[in-house]
Design brief:
Helix 7 packs across helix 8. By secondary structure, this protein is mainly alpha-helical. It has two domains: 84 residues, no CATH class; 72 residues, no CATH class. This is Ribosomal protein S4/S9 like protein.
Length: 184
């Protein structure tokens, strides 16, 4: 190896080889690919929400365990996060709240719920189906795959009336109704 020139040595002094910025992008890219997140801003919002929960919990942990404010706020936060679908237990502890990550927020996206309900084979197909307006939550049609689906809304995710994707799936599974096949 050749000896480095003066300006090259000066540049190397400014680099930190142990904490390279792009290493974090690998994890970020994997999550964005797994959940078919098209916009990096959406992922960064999930990270921001997870970090804010972490900050609130870390402040709460500094309070004494028998403090009524700590108990009340902990109950409110766990109830809210349980209803959002981020926690599996309504009576979770503060240590369970510390483990909430951006991927848990991403797992409650509408596209993920559509795949989980086996309405689509992959995340990419789920995103396409949602963007084309074939999925509804309750009575309203949703075209944004980043829509957060809470526990209460989980059962209301269905096909729109007369969806060609629903018709094709029903034909494949021999569940098609004659009335639906006529396109009525």
């Amino acid at each position: 190896m050749r000896e480095l020139k003066f300006h090259e040595q000066k540049l190397l002094k400014k680099l930190n080889f142990f904490d390279y910025k792009r290493e974090r992008n690998v994890h970020e890219g994997e999550i964005m690919k797994t959940f078919a997140i098209k916009k990096r801003v959406e992922y960064l919002q999930y990270v921001k929400h997870a970090r804010s929960i972490y900050n609130v919990v870390s402040v709460l942990r500094k309070l004494p365990k028998d403090d009524p404010i700590r108990i009340e706020i902990t109950n409110q936060i766990t109830t809210k996060l349980f209803n959002m679908g981020l926690l599996s237990d309504k009576k979770a502890s503060l240590s369970a709240l510390l483990s909430i990550s951006a991927s848990q927020f991403a797992s409650r996206r509408l596209s993920t719920i559509v795949v989980r309900k086996k309405m689509a084979d992959s995340m990419k197909k789920a995103v396409d189906i949602i963007e084309h307006g074939h999925i509804r939550i309750g009575p309203s049609v949703v075209t944004d795959p980043a829509t957060h689906v809470s526990r209460d809304m989980d059962d209301m995710v269905t096909w729109i009336a007369g969806s060609r994707f629903k018709r094709t799936i029903d034909e494949f599974h021999d569940k098609a109704d004659d009335y639906d096949l006529l396109g009525c």
